[in-house]
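Quarterly update from the structural biology core.
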Amino acid sequence: MHFLARCSYDGADFSGFAKSPPQISIQETFEHTLTRIFGDQDPVNQGISGASRTDKGVHALDQCLTFHAPDSLQAQKLKTILNHHLPPSIRVLSVAPLPENYNLHRKIVSKSYIYLIYHSQDISPFLGRYTWHEIRKFPEEQWNEVFRLFQGERDFKVFAKEPRRYESTVCNLSHIQAYSIAYIPATILYFRANRFLYNMVRRMVGFTQLLLQRQVKVSSSFEELIDHFGCWTTQRAPASGLYLYRTYLSEE
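Predicted structure, tokenized:
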């Protein structure tokens, strides 16, 4: 039977979602877990597919994946069994049965990511794996002055690590916003789009941070900004601060 699982994970110790031998991935961990539970299975027949190929060290609060399991198991029982066998760094939030012809990628409407920056001089050992420790802090208004140029349907080719892998590098970034947290020295960056390119969010964060750091006068358009400072778009923020926040599916 086909199932949809929503899960969260601490990506610090994984090579990313997709397989990347010899390092351990989220996908491979799920495959090994299913094999331990249900016996030796061909990984291809397990049907594991993820909504997002999160990069090495990137976390997820709401990743979606599909897989096969015996028909006799109820979804709630399967969730309990999976969480019992998975490492503590991966938690299944929900499990739901699916039609056999279900195509996860065709059901994705949009995704959202958040990026966390922590600005204190001293950082707790419990935060280092989950934020970008960057002491310099800029007002949210300065972040948003740049971010407004990214919003909408744009060609984000310059922010993709491997643009040639895509038929199109155009994405519709429907929402992008920076928030300063008053009671802790942190900045939260929010992104929502119909699709994201490989390394796109990390490069946008690193690029904008560099613009603010060098006190660049903001351009009047996205195209002008890239034309003047396109050589800076390879600047990547650390993976530790990035979270897949939510995956939105068409039936929801």
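Helices lie at 26-38, 43-46, 75-85, 104-107, 140-150, 200-213, 222-229.
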